[in-house]
Each structure stands twice: as C-alpha cells, then as structure tokens.
Amino acid sequence: MTLVVSPTLDDVYKKLGDFIATVITGVPVIQTPTNRTPAPPPSPGYIGMTARLSSRIMTNIDHWEADDTAPTGIAIEQAVRLKVQLDCYGVQSGDWAVILSTVLRDEFGCVGLMPILAPLHADEPKFAPLVQGEEQYEYRWIVEAVLQYNPVVSTPQQFANAAEINTINVDERYPP
User: Fold this and answer.
1) What pLDDT is stored for residue 133 in this prediction?
2) Which of 57, 63, 56 is nearest to 77 (CA)?
3) 105-109: long-range contacts at Cβ-Cβ below 8 A with a sequence spacing of 24 or more?
4) Which domains are seen in the chain, by residue range?
5) CB crowding 105-138: b at 16 or more within 10 Å, else e
6) What residues contact 159, with CB distance under 8 A and at least 6 apart?
7) Does 114 have pLDDT greater than 90?
8) Which end of the chain is more exposed for a tag (fewer CB within 10 A), N or C?
9) Residues 113, 119: contact at Cβ < 8 Å?
C-alpha cells in the first residue's frame, strides 16, 4: 500500500522560492543545505531556504465523498506550522532581509503564497556574518519565517453502506 501526500515539502519549497524570486528579482533562491554543491557566486548574492522545524497545529480532518455509494479512499488533512530560515547572502542582503520580513507579515505575502502556504509571521532580520574558508567575512542576514501548509495524505479505506445484524438471546442478567 502506497500512501500519497499533497502538497509535498518540495511543493512548499518551490512555492516559497518562486514567491521570493518575484519579490527580490535577479537573485538566485536555493534550498539548503546542499551536499557537494558550490554556493552561487557572491555577486549579487543569493537566498537560501532551510526548513528548521515542523509541528502540528490541529487534529486531523478526514474527508471522503459522502455521495459515493462505495468510497474506496479517504483524505486525511493536518495543519502544519513550518519554520523556515531564510539566509540572505551578499552586499544587499540586509535590504533583502527587510523586504522578506515585511512582505511575510502582510496581505501581500498571504496572496502571493496562496493556495499552498500561508505566512503566520516572520521575525526581525538578524545580522550573522559568515567567515569563509579564505578567512574573509561574507554578509549574511537571517529571517525566520513561520508558515502554515495543510498536507493531505490519501489512503485506501474500507467502507460499509449496509450491514446485516443478527440478535442472539442470552440468558444472563446483569444487576445494576
């Protein structure tokens, strides 16, 4: 039995990355961490997205077709709060961090991330310079975005639309 989830975490990264690319144009947006892949060139810089924490927000909601006389599947939805660290690298990284923390707290971010994501909040940008292997400082500003998405897991399910009931007479008494 193979279960299917939608949207996937890759869908979440794609939607967030596409949104960031429309807000901050001309800057590569990548999913991090990556193994054996060099970082994009230092000019103009880049933005890295790293999922840091995933937590459940609510109890599952089960959906099935009530009109179907013999449904064979059920969709189980949960709401997830996802913390994503956005690392902005480059000379203009401070400005990019301000842009991201602003739009992820506004209706602009809500509309831009629909229907897959909803921004819950974003923290204040933090300056966190990085020392490279050449012992040179690299500008890095960090914004932690907290987003909500609702993955749905599709599972097979047995249903009954009719039941045969038989009674059995039992000569027992159960006093109160």
Assistant:
1) 73
2) 63
3) 109/19
4) 4-156 (3.30.2000)
5) beeebeebbeebbebeebeebeeeeeeeeeeeeb
6) 64, 70, 71, 72
7) yes
8) C
9) yes
pLDDT exceeds cutoff 70 at 81: yes
For strand 29-31 and strand 46-56, is the pairing parallel, antiparallel, or unpaired? parallel
pLDDT in tens, 92-111: 999 999 999 999 999 999 99
Please give the Cα distance from 117 to 114 (Å, whole number).
Answer: 6
pLDDT digits (tens, 9 = 90+) for 7-55: 999 999 999 999 999 999 999 999 998 787 888 877 889 999 999 999 9
Task: Please give the Cα distance from 134 to 132 (Å, whole number).
Answer: 5
52/6 Cα distance (integer angstroms): 20
pLDDT of residue 1: 67
Give the 3-state secondary structure of residue 141.
strand
